[in-house]
Specification:
Helix content: 55-70%
Number of strands: 5
Strand order of the largest sheet: 1-2-3
Largest sheet: 3 strands, antiparallel
Number of helices: 17
Low-confidence stretches: 1-7
Distance between the termini: 84 Å
Structural class: mainly alpha
Shape: globular
Strand content: 5-15%
């Protein structure tokens, strides 16, 4: 690890350089993005502020370095490269110049609205951060994000969930990974955790007493919540943690470990998604993803009569409107539909299967 005196970022203070070193030492996607920025001569003047802002995102705002932090830093670094190539001053950009970059993302790179919306959010965050600290004006003022199409959420059916667990039993790569993968998918189903939350869940954040347990989760924005669990997921977790301890190859504090190509360490977000994808394909499913487990968790709770505000808390949603979108595909919501007799009345027909006397009454109506 570089010491503050050795850092190539000349305008960082010793304390700021130490914060930079700490993030680099953690590795991961954010460290890779920032190392690339440091190596780019076009960003030499801007990289100090880029580092200060990145540290603020992770340390103050609580953004996850491996996901949101990395995406935001990569987007702003891309903007800075774009304007540098055109001889534009990143500190005094006109709104039209930023919009020109967004236009190039769409026209030349064919990026979707979701990607460009993240780019806009990152740009606003960076320039607002600079403006609030007197480091320059907010060049992003008035910048608007593209409208992202709202898709109907997807959930797993009962048959699909059965196919998942049957695939684990039939195709697990070893007895140890069978126990792990069964516990992993049950945690996703029974808690609705995000993939980052599952991958960073530590053993000391799992409390089990008999047949019930509690997962203490650190979610987006460093917000903590407790998710109670019971039933098969508790037994599966106990079985997995016991098997992991007896195996002895993974010695970290994480709950779920990686056992692939001689790698014994935390099962990262990509590893969680990889496990889900593998068994989904083996089960013959055409759609999958950790997010689909989250939707399934929310809809099953709603179908069981749980209050939507309680579901919001368990999901770690900041807005209840997000929760409403999740439960829009619940069976409970699908019960509200126009009855067949209203349609038959419009058509002048009688429902199938009615006795003769009932059909006569329907025709008279």
């Amino acid at each position: 690890m570089l010491t503050p005196a050795e850092t190539p970022i000349g305008d960082l203070s010793p304390a700021e350089a130490a914060e930079r070193d700490s993030l680099l030492a953690r590795g991961g996607r954010l460290a890779a993005v920032m190392r690339a920025a440091e190596a780019d001569a076009a960003l030499a003047v801007a990289v100090g502020d880029l580092w200060r802002w990145a540290v603020w995102l992770v340390m103050i705002r609580g953004y996850r370095a491996s996901t949101t932090g990395a995406k935001y830093a990569a987007a702003v670094a891309d903007l800075l490269r774009h304007v540098a190539a055109r001889g534009q001053d990143w500190r005094e950009l006109a709104l039209e110049e930023i919009e020109g970059w967004l236009r190039s993302l769409y026209v030349q790179r064919r990026t979707g609205a979701s990607h460009r919306s993240v780019a806009v959010s990152a740009t606003k965050s960076f320039y607002r951060w600079r403006g609030a600290r007197g480091r320059g004006r907010d060049c992003s003022f008035g910048l608007t994000a593209p409208k992202v199409p709202r898709k109907v959420p997807r959930k797993f059916t009962g048959a699909e969930l059965k196919a998942f667990f049957a695939a684990i039993k039939a195709h697990a790569q070893s007895p140890l990974t069978e126990v792990r993968d069964r516990a992993l998918l049950l945690v996703l189903l029974a808690s609705g955790l995000r993939r980052e939350e599952v991958s960073t869940l530590r053993q000391d954040e799992v409390s089990i007493e008999g047949r019930i347990g509690v997962l203490r989760v650190t979610g987006k924005g460093a917000k903590e919540r407790e998710v109670p669990i019971e039933g098969p997921v508790v037994r599966a977790l106990v079985e997995w943690l016991d098997a992991r301890r007896k195996d002895g190859r993974a010695t970290g504090a994480e709950v779920f470990s990686e056992y692939r190509s001689g790698k014994f360490g935390p099962l990262g977000p990509g590893g969680v998604e990889r496990v889900v994808k593998r068994y989904a394909k083996l089960a013959g499913l055409r759609r999958w993803g950790v997010h689909v487990f989250r939707v399934t968790f929310a809809t099953l709770l709603y179908d069981d009569g749980v209050d939507i505000e309680r579901i919001r808390i368990l999901m770690g949603h900041e807005s209840i409107e997000t929760t409403r979108r999740y439960i829009s595909v619940s069976q409970r919501n699908r019960k509200d539909r126009l009855k067949p007799h209203r349609q038959h009345a419009a058509l002048g027909t009688a429902p199938d299967g009615l006795p003769a006397w009932a059909k006569q009454l329907e025709s008279q109506a």
